[in-house]
Amino acid sequence: MDFQGFIEFTAVKISCYIFLGAIILRFLFFLFCIFVNAEKNFWTPLYLIKTIIRSFFPLHKISIKRPFYTSIRYIFHICLILVPICYTGHLMIWEALETDFYPPELPDIWIDRLAVIAIFIGIWFLIRRISIPQIRKSSSAFDYIFIIIATLPFISGYYLVSGTPDIIFFLDNDIWNIHIISGEVFILCAAFLLCSTRINPDKCIGCASCELACPTETLETIDKDDIRTFKYSHYQCICCGSCINACPEDAVELRHNMNLLNFFKVNIKNIIRTAKLKRCIRCSKTFTPEPVFDKVVIELNHDYLKLCPECRKHDHAENFLK
Ligand code: SF4
Ligand code: SF4
After folding, report:
1. What CATH architecture applies to the domain 197-277?
2. What is the Å distance from ligand 2's center to 159 Cα?
3. Does residue 46 surpass a pLDDT of 80?
4. Is pLDDT of 233 > 70?
5. What number does CATH give the domain 3-195?
6. Is 219 in the pocket of ligand 1 (CB under 6 A)?
7. Confidence (pLDDT) at 229
8. Residue 221: pLDDT band by 50, 70, 90 thresholds?
9. 235 CA from centroid of ligand 1 (Å)
10. 17-21 — which CB contacts under 8 Å span 24+ positions?
11. Where are the domains of the chain?
């Protein structure tokens, strides 16, 4: 088989089957992790319905605070789903898969408009990420690459349908191959793309409110010696945003990332944050994270706060008996 035949049929088939396989595996891994770890009430019908709604429409305080950005994200995701699936020109994908399934088709004019919207949003995401220092600081190389991977099939597809402009005449013959290959790379990336919770160490004070709010026990804190460790399992996370709502410091974010090793880490919790714990100045027991302590002491400068709860109770009792 020549190169053209490979990218047009075999590679399309392979990438779609990998995508489907990965989606099924992710769902099974999720069920396994939830079954092994989550609270018993997770399995009640009402709780499950609420969870499904929350994971598809994660309306947390950050998204409510930024309605414009949230709407744009939703629109981009709608374009990412509808254009590849409902475009008549993509019939070859379903033929390559040799199934009897053919998705509903949308009129070409709609697909055209959605593609243009996706291109503009993709470019806007990229410019925003490069130009806003705060966002740039928290971005990894993958964040940039993934925006390009997601937008390139739309740009190349649009030019294929509307004609390559003169300024990029040198791509005239290759734009078809760019379109197919970028589409396949996008499908493969989407298969292994995980949405996971990140904690910004510059903002987090280690209070563990996020752990208390997490409905699936995905976030877990362990206090050992003088360190509080935050552990997190991406398969248990339903991306509901409850941790974002609970965080008093706006330190939690839900972000996409792709890591093949993480994909196969089922039921293993990764350490996503550590915070030092404060020791009582009298008995040396640890009792609260240092950032929480520092924050409270700035507000209420009192030596009493440097004692652990037990030593405070002891002091109360002594004062009472005096
Ligand atoms: S970690 Fe956050 S987003 Fe994930 S399930 Fe828990 S509360 Fe929801
Ligand atoms: S709720 Fe926010 S500040 Fe508190 S531990 Fe979680 S991320 Fe850190």
Report:
1. 2-Layer Sandwich (3.30)
2. 46
3. no
4. yes
5. 1.20.950
6. yes
7. 95
8. very high
9. 10
10. 17/97, 18/187, 18/188, 18/191, 19/187, 19/188, 19/190, 19/191, 21/191
11. 3-195, 197-277, 280-321
